[in-house]
Design brief:
The complex is a heterodimer of chains A (112) and B (350). Chain A has 112 residues and is mostly helical. Chain A contains five helices and no strands. Chain B has two domains: 2-135, Response regulator (Rossmann fold, 3-Layer(aba) Sandwich), CATH 3.40.50.2300; 164-341, Orthogonal Bundle (Hypothetical protein af1432). Classes of the chains: A mainly alpha (112), B alpha/beta (350).
Amino acid sequence: MTGAFVLDKTSILDRLGGDEEIFTMMVDMYVEDLDSNCEALSAALVSGDVSVLRREAHTVKGLLATFSDDDGAAEAALVEQNASQGIVADQAAAVAGLLARMRQVAEVLRAG
Amino acid sequence: MHNVLIIDDIDINLTLIKALVLKLGECNPLLFDNPLAALEWCRSNVPDLVIVDYMMPEMDGLKFIAAFRALHGRNEIPVLMITANDQKDVRYEALLGGANDFLTKPIDRVEFSARARNMLSLRTGQKFLADRAEHLASLVEERTAEIREREKELIFRISRAAEFRDPETGAHIQRMAHYSQIIALGLDLSLEQQRLILEAAPMHDVGKIGIPDYILLKPGKLTVEEFEVMKGHARIGYEMLKDSRSEIMQAGAEVAISHHEKFDGTGYPNGLKGQQIPLFGRIVAVADVFDALTSERPYKRAWSLEDACKFLEDGRGKHFDPLCVEAFLAGWEHVLEIRQRFRDEEAPQI
């Protein structure tokens, strides 16, 4: 079980060269794209297609890493890794957890 | 302004990279969320830097790089590949597959700026070298053309020098050279060969420089002995030109020694027969005789065109190579144009 997402704005801004404008733009886009990204991940699980699930998990991993959510990115990496080994159906719980994590991150980002 | 191509199927990444590219300055970011569309764009456009994500649905970054590198002229364009931190194997594969460098996710602005600037500096250097190479190539071409022009002028003046000792006119040289080119065209010789004979034919009588005045300028008929001396001009012309490294001079040497050979072997200086006579010699024989016959000289009136054509036709297989006569007559309209263009009163430059 991973810990709750804590926004480390300092480290993110540090990575972005202190650019608040880019940070705000990324937050807005993450929140805006949340539903479509969640739907894509859910659909990948339902499709049973390992390559689709692997790709969607990879995308989520990148998104969460962008906001320095190392724990969330690690969860996504696990789903990606399992998918690359041909595992799909047994990942329902992991995907559900990942979806919850994505929404949680959005909540925290919205709260600022 | 650098055109920076950014390919990533995730909007947030495209937006982030675009923002970072704009911060570099002097950059025009071009965004594609589909690698196939990006590749299509690259077929008719040349970016200065490509930033491509690894994992994309239609085509992954490695395949994109391979396809991009396969396009003509895209082999040197810098490519940055974006991979996750845990994809060391992919990074190796990318570097081996044509990526110049890679970026890791999450993207760090300092790292991004440094790597992107390095790639753009590389591109600037490439462009500078390409421009310089192009500039040097055009300079070489310009100088070569100048040398060739000088060579042509030199040949024309050498030929003129021979003319001053001979009743032939400058216009004769121009006409017979162009007639030779018409025959070369009719024989389907290459454009290069057509140009070569045009430039070399004027030297056919250059050896007359070495013939004593009392023979060369004798108004009456030459004695047998005098004619033997006169025939020497073919070999003298050859000796004058044969050792030159110039292709035109070498062709001129061949023309000089062979233009008085006859197809049936009764010509001079070597009595060569048929295909033994160099092709340029067979061509110039037709062109030179036709123009000599149809030109007025202090000692003779000009033949009519009909009579001169009949002379050529009658001489097929005897004096002349039948194919050369045929090629000459096939280009009759051009022959008339040349006659009109180069009249004896005024002789324009080649």
